[in-house]
Amino acid sequence: MSVFHFFKKLFRKRWRRWRRAIWSCSIVVLVGVMVWSGQNITDQMKRLLTAAFDETPLAVETMEYLQIEDDKQEERRQDQREFMQKLNTSKGKKHVHVRITYVCGIEEQDMGKLTADGIYELMNKNPLWQGRLDNKGDVWLEQTVSDLSPACKRQAYMSIDANGNLTLFDGPPEEEKVMRTFFQLDVGSMESSLPKDVIQQLEEGIRIQDMEEYNSVLSTFSDYARDMAENVMSPSP
């Protein structure tokens, strides 16, 4: 059995723990539809949703989470309106940059200098882009994507660094091109629990080509994350 299949098997076992989260997402969709259609969520609805989950507050917590997300969306819309107002009052062309931020990796593109109309045309073609002006007056059109960047898919590895941290590398670990450090591993516990070939593969570098592999490896080794409290020295007597 390959190392990735080992991680995949462990990842699937955790599915049972996440079923409740799936129910929560279903409630998000339900309430989202209601909010979109302009319907009010009454206290009676809250009680019914709460009762549907064995009298736990999960449904109500989900609606509170939805409200937080809605507030964030409104904040982003407000930022976009302010950006457009500044753009409308500005004169001449603006230097425009596009930045796409992925779970792993960032891609940037210099679009040169554009008029306000040219910038709006770009944004109309890419409605998920969020605009802002930096201190120099340059325009940045930005988007966050829940995926690996094309470069990461080609050459990302997950391994352990010299300090025992689970780390994402750009290329093989021996090249030491760190993209992201996650957490310190309890190596002793890991070595006593996982097969030797899995430990060896981690040391050599586990190739990460998509979000399934990324999540599977990260989920597996999160069980062996060292408690940060262990690193805090106790006061001297």
UniProtKB/TrEMBL annotation:
Location of the Bypass of forespore C C-terminal domain: 147-222
Keywords: Membrane, Transmembrane, Transmembrane helix
Gene3D superfamilies in UniProt: Bypass-of-forespore C, C-terminal domain
Superkingdom of the organism of origin: Bacteria
Segments passing through the bilayer: 21-38
Name of the molecule in the record: Bypass of forespore C C-terminal domain-containing protein
Organism: Paenibacillus lautus
